[in-house]
Amino acid sequence: MAAVESNMMPLGTVAPDFDLPDVISGKNKTLEDVRLEYGLVVMFICAHCPFVKNIEEEIAVIARQYTDLKVGFVAISSNDATKYPDDAPEGLKAQAEEFDFNFPYLYDESQEVAKAYQAACTPDFFLFDEDLKCIYRGRFDASTPGNPEPVTGDDLVNALEAHLEDEPPLKDQKPSIGCSIKWKE
After folding, report:
1. Distance separating alpha carbons of residues 41 and 132, to the nearest angstrom
2. pTM of the predicted model, to two decimals?
3. CA angle 147-153-154, nearest 5°?
4. Whole-angstrom Cα distance, residue 165 to residue 181?
5. Rounded CA separation 105/27 (Å)
């Protein structure tokens, strides 16, 4: 399993728009549909990646907690489902049901949304403020498959807490590490 780091979108970048099918509801969702009063977390994840599997249960917990605090969450999978069939919409829906995701899980078949966000790996996290400007990008926490670090979501949670307390974006933002997005040839 070769690890890839995220590209670290420049802070202040406005969230690129999207209009993608939600594997849970079957309806298309846009950026405007998923944002809430205090912003939005965009997560590039998938069903097969061991780095995502390591944290998917805690993603669900944190999303429920912060959705209640009016921060939107959305997951996007951009992997080539022909080569990685677990990441086809049916597999993503099964993952969402298993972990009781309370957020839309979108399928980016064209991979254009991943490119617009400069997403490089799964998982890859982006936090946008109420003006949809990037205030955090990077890792969920220090845990990875096989390392002894506990799964806490601390990096993302600290960014969320700083934002909700009207503090400036965190200075220490570390790139996410995970499986590369499975680009089509």
Report:
1. 10
2. 0.95
3. 95
4. 33
5. 11
State whether residue 181 is helix, strand or coil.
Answer: coil
What Cα–Cα distance (Å) separates residue 153 from each residue in 3, 63, 162? 19, 10, 14
Which residues fall within 8 angstroms of residue 81, CB to CB, at 6 or more apart?
Answer: 87, 88, 89, 91, 107, 109
Name the residue with tokens 């049916």: 90
Sign of CA dihedral 146, 149, 153, 159: negative
Query: Do 63 and 34 touch, CB atoms closer than 8 A?
Result: no
- Smallest CA-to-CA distance from 61 within 156, 146, 139, 182 is with 156
The string of pLDDT tens digits covering residues 114-169 is: 999 999 999 999 999 999 999 999 999 999 998 889 999 999 999 999 999 999 88
CATH H superfamily, domain 4-180: Glutaredoxin (3.40.30.10)
